Amino acid sequence: MxxxxxxxxxxxxxxxxxxxxxxxxxxxxxxxxxxxxxxDTHKLTDGMKRDPLLxxxxxxxxxxWRAEDNDxxxxxxxxxxxxxxxxxxxRNEELGELVKTMRDLERTWNxxxxxxxxxxxDQPFTEEFKRKTQxxxxxxxxxxxxxxxxWEAPEWIDDELVKESNKILEEQGIQxxxxxxxxxxxxWNSGMFYKHPALANTRYYWRVEPKVQFFCNVDYDVFRYMQxxxxxxxxxxNLFDAPESLPSxxxxxxxxxxxxxxxxxxxxxxxxxxxxxxxxxxxxxxNGYSTCHFWSNFEIGDMDFFRSERYEAYFNYLDRAGGFFYxxxxxxxxxxxxxxxxxxxxxxxxxxxxGYRHIxxxxxxxxxxxxxxxxxxxxxxxxxxxxxxxxxxxxKYVGTH
Length: 401
Ligand SMILES: Nc1nc2c(ncn2[C@@H]2O[C@H](COP(=O)(O)OP(=O)(O)O)[C@@H](O)[C@H]2O)c(=O)[nH]1
Ligand SMILES: [Mg+2]
Description:
The chain is α/β, with parallel strands linked by helices and 401 residues long. The protein has 15 helices and 14 strands.
């Protein structure tokens, strides 16, 4: 039986429509990208169909300063080094772990550039600490004690209220919430480190913690890179935070920006800060904050940002609100919210080429310059850790620069 021409046409259109739907579905579904690590899989969502670290990674574009072409000798008075330091807040007891980390960073980067190390501590450093750290580098080492007025809780913090509120945080399983030194450390890293008198003439810093690892040879002066490309802040890992540790951070921030709308940058990263799609419960518990942040155990930054009027006003506002002690605000979300609101998004840089690990997360690029980590592997441990990756949001709203 012959089929009428209009019916045939309709049939063809229907088949085409079905094919189109199939095509759209197969191309928009987030893919499962194997992280090639012991069967771990890393589910990537919207904004990150494939982990960019699986693709070959080279050096950043533009002019790069190299040790072969310039004077980076440790004692040179004419050296090409800029005003910058490796910076580590550390306890005497962490000496062994710190020296291992120093060896990593010296081997992969600093033996070429010889930037000084500055060690900071709320206690005096021991002679053994000074000797063993200096033995790990040709560069100059400085050992500085933190003034008590920078470290201790401000006088308006109520000790009884701290005890009560920390008990509640501990019941909620918030790590370190009962440890007063941890709260002090987070506050100091938020609003004090760049005020240390020994750093008064230093502009750029690379924060280094004991126990972290570095995997890739970096053959250019990263501080010069920051300066030449007008960057304020560089990160490697981008994470969600525990919302229970900071329920009032975002409400306080909103009050602050209502008072000071002039501080908010035009090209800001607000969408990354307020996303409620990827982890709606996080946003809800954090009262409007996605909890996404740059993981601040690694940072390469320009202290002039933290010394600016807008950051200083923001930190003082937060400090008065008391959340460093009554809650457990970390310096990572505080730095990140400030950068996300008050800095131009183009001034933040993802150092994708710096292979890095702070347990349990990695930034491991696919590059012949790297060894000892697995490209694209984001975490090691329980599979729920994969959910803590906020890079899909960052790439979606801010970009992969
Ligand atoms: N001097 C000193 N350093 C501290 C203290 N608490 C933490 N730190 C340092 O602060 C950084 C962060 O602490 P860490 O224990 O690694 O915290 P985590 O990374 O959040 O688990 C590390 O460099 C520690 O060495 C402290 O009470 N005194
Ligand atoms: Mg740490």
